[in-house]
Amino acid sequence: MAKILVINGPNLNLLGSREPQQYGHRTLQEIMEDLERFAGACGHELTHTQNNSEGGLVDTVHRAASEGIDYIILNPAGYTHTSIVLRDAMIAVGIPFVEVHLSLVHAREPFRQKSYFSDVAIGVITGFQGEGYMLALQAIVNRIEP
Fold this sequence. Notes:
146 residues, 5 strands, alpha/beta, single chain, 38% helix, five-stranded parallel beta sheet, 18% strand
C-alpha cells in the first residue's frame, strides 16, 4: 500500500465557481472524493489538502516526508510560476511527484507557460480540468503496480 498526498495551491478552493470555462464545473471536494475512492479501490491511501498560502504549502511538503508519503500529486496553481521556495521544498523531501494543472497552461498567457516544477516532477498533466488529477493518480498506480 502506498501513501499518496494531493497538494492543492491557492484559489483551488473556488473550483466549480471560478472561471468554469478554464477550470471546469466540479468542486475540489468532488474531485478529491473520486480520487479517494479510486485509490482505496487500488489498495492505496490518499489524503489531500489545499492551502492559499505559500508557507502553508511548504509546511505541508515538509510534513509529508515525516509522515511517510510515497507520492505527491501537486497542483501549485499560481505558485507554479513564482515559488522557488516551494520548488526547493519538493526537491528537499525527495518524494516523487506529478505536477497537475487544470487549464492548458501552454495556451495561456506567456507568464503562465513557465513552471518551476516541471523539470523536477516525474510527469506533468495539463489541460484536462479535474480529470487531470485522476490521470496523475492512474500514472502513480501504474508505477507502483506495473
